[in-house]
Amino acid sequence: MSWEQRVKEAAYTSPSGNRLTFDFEDVSVQHTKRTTAFDFAGVDGTYIQTRGRSGRRFPMLCYFHGDDHDIEAAGFVTLLNENGFGRLEHPFYEPADVVPFGEITRRDDLKTAANQTVLEVEFWETLGVIYPSPDADLSGSVAAAVDAFNAASAAQFEEQIDLDTEAETITFKDRVESFLGEVSQATSRIAATTEKVNDKFNQVNDSINRGIDVLIRDPLTLAFQVKIATQAPARAQTAIRDRLEAYGNLAADIFSRPDATSSDANKFLTRDLYASAYVSGSVVSCINHQFDTRSEALEAAITLLEQWAAYLAWVEANWEYLAAVDTTAIPQVNLVDPGGQYQALLEAVGLAAGFLVQISFTLKQERALILTRPRNIMELGYELYGEGFEDQLDFFIQSNAFTGTEILEVPKGRKVKYYV
Questions:
Q1: What is residue 375's predicted lDDT score, i.e. its pLDDT?
Q2: Which of 192, 182, 170, 314 lies closest to 249 in space, CA to CA?
Q3: What pLDDT, in 10s, does the model give residues 333-380?
Q4: In angstroms, rounded to a whole number, what is the distance separating the alpha carbons of residues 65 and 372?
Q5: Where residue 89 falls among pLDDT bands split at 50, 70, 90?
Q6: Quick one: average pLDDT of 372-390?
Q7: Domain coordinates of the chain in residue numbers?
Q8: What's phi and psi for 95, nearest 5 deg?
Q9: Per-residue pLDDT tens digits for 175-224
Q10: Which 3-state string (H, E, C) describes the chain?
Q11: What residues form DSSP beta bridges with 35?
């Protein structure tokens, strides 16, 4: 049997059970093999740890032609927009449970290609129902998980930090003050966008700064205050991308330093206090944002999971390094999650990702079209959004990054995004 005989019919079955076939052209599939590289002092070479693979991603051009090509294409888009996951019968690869991910683009070739419609869509393979029940109050569960993490982290920090000497206490104080300055510089602009958040942010930071000499000898209270101060800007009513980027950059700065694997336990524990707070800040950001589109919610979920993966890899690298340097000096760090901090943070991240996936099915789906002629922006907007478009005008302009001339007339060939 030749490869031509192994090509099968292409079809998609929606969550409601409706099946529709379509034509196709060249196909491809991609996935990510999850790996982490560890370099150890005094050891030549690199240890690569494998963590399985991601789901497959199938980008496809779906063709509809004939007298009813426009009706068939519209019906296909309706199936793609259903909530839940469907079944892709791929013409060349194994069938998979999938979710249509991200932007769906429609192009109607009325003249140049004998009356056909082309839909560009990317299907992502999914494990299905791995998140909490949709009947659960996920937002409240995430908030409770963050509170549990704050308590576990503070208790674990107090248990593990070593401040037996004055020199260790002074060094610890310097490190804490340095991180406090970095957090304030990176997030103060975000906090300032919401008065109530800004007041809370400044109040907690002032409290820490004023009482640093006392708090430094009370690691439990200090650690808890650090979490609260770091998470405060996450509640600001500003772009979710800005908040996730701010926390992601703070974490990446720790992970990418030349001495990212700390040479002593106290240095690692202080960095970990803040690094874990940054991940939790991203979690709090996600449950304190009003998402408008499905793609925005799913992008936030991916960012959150990527931050967690980077954090965990950094923690494991430090455990390995510190254990190799001096196992007798750091027995408390060489234990796996003795206070439950990492498990608590993992639960918060997992619940937040589930929350984002769940709400994404209720949000507007991104679509796109290629203009076949110049269009007036108001006429085009009312055609795409219908009545009430005037309330969507600013969003329409921003989401497409229309220039001044394009606002006057959107040119032929321009790709236009809209959400329904």
A1: 92
A2: 182
A3: 545 566 688 888 999 999 999 889 888 888 887 788 899 899 999 999
A4: 18
A5: very high
A6: 88
A7: 3-125, 138-360, 373-419
A8: -60, 155
A9: 888 888 888 888 888 887 788 877 877 787 777 877 788 888 888 888 88
A10: CCHHHHCCCEEEECCCCCEEEEECCCCCCECCEEEEEECCCCCCCCEEEEEEECCCEEEEEEEEECCCHHHHHHHHHHHHCCCCCEEEECCCCCCEEEEEEEEEEEEEECCCCCCEEEEEEEEEECCCCCCCCCCCCHHHHHHHHHHHHHHHHHHHHHHHCCCCCHHHHHHHHHHHHHHHHHHHHHHHHHHCCCHHHHHHHHHHHHHHHHCHHHHCCCHHHHHHHHHHHHHHHHHCCCCHHHHHHHHHHHHHHHHCCCCCCCCCHHHHHHHHHHHHHHHHHHHHHHHCCCCCEHHHHHHHHHHHHHHHHHHHHHHHHHHHHHHHHCCCCCCCCCCCCCCCHHHHHHHHHHHHHHHHHHHHCCCECEEEEECCCCECHHHHHHHHHCCCHHHCHHHHHHHHCCCHHHHHCECCCCEEEEEC
A11: 50
Q: How far apart are CA 77 and CA 62, in angstroms?
A: 11
How far is 10 from 106, CA to CA, in rounded Å? 18
Length of the chain: 420
Q: Where does the pLDDT of residue 120 fall: very low under 50, low under 70, confident under 90, or very high at 90 and above?
A: very high
For residue 266 the two structure tokens come to 């106290």
pLDDT recorded at residue 129? 44
d(CA 148, CA 144): 6
- What is 3-125's CATH number, 3.40.50.300, 2.40.30.200, 3.40.1710.10, 1.10.443.10? 2.40.30.200
Strand 57-65 and strand 116-125: pairing?
A: antiparallel
Closest CA to 139 of 235, 227, 233, 223: 235
Are 48 and 9 contacting, i.e. CB atoms less than 8 angstroms apart? Answer: no
pLDDT band at 42; cut points 50, 70, 90? low
pLDDT digits over 217-263, tens only?
A: 888 888 888 898 899 888 888 889 899 999 999 999 999 888 888 77
Integer Cα distance of 250 and 405 in angstroms = 38
How far is Cα 400 from Cα 72, in angstroms, rounded to an integer? Answer: 27
